[in-house]
Amino acid sequence: MLESTDYAEIKLLGFVEAFYGLPRFGHTKDVSYFYSDDKTLRNDYALGLLLVFTILMGTAILWFLILLIMRLLGNRVGCGSGDAATIPAESMAVSKGGSYSVHTDETGEFIVMQADQNRVNRTRIIYFISGLYTIVATGVLIFGFFKISGALSEFEGHILSVDANVGNAPETMTSLLEEASNFVATRDAYVSSLSTFCLAPTGNVNGQDPSAVKAELSASLTDIGDISVDGDWSTLKTDLQDMQGMIQQAVSFLDKNTGMTALWFILVLSALSCMVIAVLYLLAQAWKSGKEGYQFVGEFRPTCGSRILHFFVTPIFGIVLAAVWFTTSTMLAAHAINSDVCYDEITTGDTILRMMVERGYANNSDPYILVDEYLHGCATATATPNTVLNSFSGVIGEADITIASFKALAPNGDTTDLNAACGGGGDAIMTQTATVSDELSSFEAYFDTLYGSVSCETMAPIMQQAVYETSCNNLSVSILWTFVPGLIAAVFGTIMMSLRSATQRPQIYIVAPNPASRDSDLENMSSNSFG
After folding, report:
1. From CA 298, how far away is CA 454, in angstroms rounded?
2. Is 293 helix (H, G, I), strand (E, B) or coil?
3. Which of 89, 158, 470, 492 could make an SS bond with 110 (beta carbons 3.0 to 4.6 A apart)?
């Protein structure tokens, strides 16, 4: 189990572990296979995700299929088909003035059994409650998508920071190698001059032996090899170019899919807004039908409002509802992917490294070593994970020290003592020293830029925060904020679709009176009232 570092808080969220436990029905949870060249491994992981997606989407399809079948069956399944509830009523003409304590409509011309009235009322109450849950859940769902957009933008910021460092490294290295070639030519001429300077000094200068200082300077400059023809540096450049390509692909993808101007975000907000409007309209129609009461079978006449309800609002609500089910199922699969990465990475520390291997990087390659050190801690924070860069940093540092020591033989450019001890030639050698020193400084500036851009103190905070805080914390929470309300909105929205008969006035048809059943109904009502 990885522990928090100086740069990032690492914690395994409980629900991430729970989502990691989602069944894959025999298929792998190793997300690194997604990057494998082996199509069989990729398909195995993808099929497992598809089955996770199907857990919810299959339920939705079955539910919608049942509703479609009931719609096709029509009156044979009653209000389950979506048509208005049709219930029997008895004429009041035989009740001698309506002395029975049963429900009558506003005309007082018929009676409806209490059980039928309760069924209509229950349907409408459940419909209203489902509508309120759907509206609230949709509002929370919108908030969840804002959180996802924010988490993705935060992740993009980290990737842009990586791109600003490692992404520019190949260009910096190109300039470094060109500068190295120029420096080596100047260095070789200078070392040749040093070899003939002050061969037999007559004494020390400013407390130093000129010949000894000269020898140290020659040795340190010679140690700076011609990296422009060094195979290790060529390999490093190629690896950095590969990393640059991966980073730029990520930047391009995130640039198109983050922020509130992303197409998916606009579509989601538009669809959810349509859903809220549709639910409000459906609830208004249900309220209106409840206020208007019953109507006789055959009295229904299409109105502008009924046409809007049946041919516009209800179909749009059904389409958006299906989209919510699809989105919620997608969020479940996305949670599974996120948990596959985060749970495995936090508990083992090698998930992302396995991805690198599947992408074709050996475990001794520069990209692999860089990513490993950035994520799991470097031996020295100010160093880089690359031994070639670290060793070269020491070589350049040593050359700086010896040049400074050699310049001290002529403080403030005064070569009087140096010429006296070495028999002349001090002015010419100090002029060359200044030239070499300037070129070394220019060379070193490119190297410092490259070294600093890939050092642990630069990259480790960015990489660790991107993976462990943004991806495995903020993004995980954001996905949860969309999955839970999405599931609630989908379920209660589908309940509304199932009970859509509540948006229409119940229809009654007159049946022959049944005094026995009416007396029984009255007795039950009396018992409930006084017992």
Report:
1. 80
2. coil
3. 89
